[in-house]
Structures are given as structure tokens and as C-alpha cells.
Amino acid sequence: MSTEEEERLAAFVASMPVEYRGAFDAEATRAHAEVVRRRGARATHVEIWRELEGRVVAICVVADDAPGLLSRISAALVGAHIDVVSAHAYCRRREDGSVEAVDLLWIRRLPGPRGAVLRIRARDVVALADAIERAVSGAGDADPVSAPAPLAPGASARVRFETDRADGSTILTVEAVDRPGLLLAVTQALFRADVQILALRATTERGSAVDRFKLADAGGTPLRRERLFALQIAILGAIDEGTLSAGDRRRSAG
Predict the structure, then answer these.
(1) What is the pLDDT of residues 65-123, one digit of tens each?
(2) Contact between residue 63 and residue 136 where contact means Cβ atoms under 8 Å apart
(3) What residue numbers bound the domain in which 129 lies?
(4) How far apart are CA 191 and CA 70, in angstroms?
(5) Pairing mode, if any, of strands 82-93 and 195-205?
(6) In the beta sheet, which residues pair with residue 211?
């Protein structure tokens, strides 16, 4: 690695929050930094940075941060019949002072009618990048109605809040049965409540999703405690809401 590349990598790492630095090794960090660099002047940029087993690919989505950004990205993925297996989302300040979102998403296609899961290829990501750019720019639906399938009978979701001792921000943890569109439902609820997502770490294990959000109000200050109950109700309502008909859900899985 040349001196220039080392300096560029060091600047990227320094611009990312501490949570990012503890989550990725040197190889992954270099890959992310290069994807961010290749964004250039584009409004959004999407690349595969790693391929994994189970037909899962890790993509990096880079765009200017804006209210509802993660919700719009999630909507574009749902519209493309893509499931989010895991996710990390961060914001960093660029040299020009603007705030850039760096979202790392582990994705795979939803099963087809016969249960087959097709591989996501580079050409598919080109189409996906176009869909994400349209969603982020507002060319698509501003507030898509696509919802996750309802919870299975007897299943439950948990929503809890805690305060980050480091900076006073609010940490939201959502635990629920994993299903397509879950991340979309939660991010839409947060967007509608005028809540800012500062960071996200979403994981899925044995059919259960655990999504951990770092939140602030629209002005960047910590959420007041009196808002949390209403926000909890809104999130649970969004998770439980199943507005797609059974036929629509079958089509979305194909």
C-alpha cells in the first residue's frame, strides 16, 4: 500500500464512529474505504464488498445522510424482493463538512415459488443501485406501504430503550421474529416519529432478529423520556401491521 493510500485509509477510519472501528478488521475497513472513495460525486453509490455462504452478499451503500435515508433504502430492497440478513449503518463527516451515510448490508434474495434462492450477481447490484438511488432521491414512493408479514400466532416482539452513557443518546433494541420487511417497518416508524438514526447494528440468528439503533431527535439531541412510550407503541404497531394481502406476499416472495 502506498503512502497516499495509507493516509487515505487512516483519514477514513478517523472519520468513522468508534462503534465502526471495533466491528471490522483491517481487510474489511480497506474495502469500505475504497467503496466510499469510488462514490465520487454520485448522489449514491452501491457495491458488493464481500460474498458469503448461503448466497448472501455484503453491500456498501454510500450517500449523503438525510432524514428517512435508511427507510428509503430498506423500501428499495423490499421492492426488489431482497431480504436483509444483517446490517450496520454509520454516519461520518467528510472533509467538506457534509455528513455521509455508510450503510453495510448483508442481503440475499427471497426464496422463489419453489423455495430456491437465486444468487445476487454484480449486474443485479447495478439494478439495485438504481432502485436505491431513485428511492433516496425521492423519485420513487416517498413513504412505501410495503409491510412485513404479520407475526406468527403466539410470537412476540420486544422494544426497549436505554441511555448511552458515553454521549447520552438513546439506544433502541428491537427483538422480533425475523421476516422480510422487518427493518423497513421499524425505520419507517422512526422516520414518521421524526427520530434520527445515528447508527444501526442488526443481526439475525436462528429466526430471530435483534436490531439495535442509536437514536436522537431531529435536532441531534437525546430523546426525552416522555417520547419513548409513544415511540414504543408506534414501533410495535408497525411491526404487527400486516397490510399486504396473502396474494401480495406470495408475489413478493417470488
Answers:
(1) 999 999 999 999 999 999 999 999 999 999 999 999 999 999 999 998 888 899 998 88
(2) yes
(3) 3-137
(4) 9
(5) antiparallel
(6) 174, 202
Domain tally, the chain = 2
Provide the 3-class DSSP secondary structure of residue 60: strand
Assess whether 93 and 187 both reside in one domain: no
- Give residue for cell 426464496: 111
Q: Do the domain assignments include residue 145?
A: no
Spatial contact of 191 and 68, defined as CB atoms under 8 Å apart: yes
Axis-axis angle for helices 122-137, 69-79 (nearest 10): 130
Q: Is residue 46 part of a domain?
A: yes
Number of other CB atoms surrounding residue 139 within 10 Å = 11
CATH of the domain at 213: 3.30.70.260
Per-residue pLDDT of 213-228, as tens digits, reads: 999 998 888 898 889 9
On whether the CB atoms of residues 161 and 169 are closer than 8 A, the answer is no
What digits encode the pLDDT tens for the residues 32-72? 999 999 999 899 999 999 999 999 999 999 999 999 999 99
Write down the H helix ranges in 64-223.
69-79, 122-137, 182-192
Residue type, 151: L
- Tell me how far apart the alpha carbons of residues 120 and 118 are, in angstroms, rounded to a whole number: 7
Interatomic CA distance for residues 189 and 234, integer angstroms: 6
| Domain assignment present for 148 | no
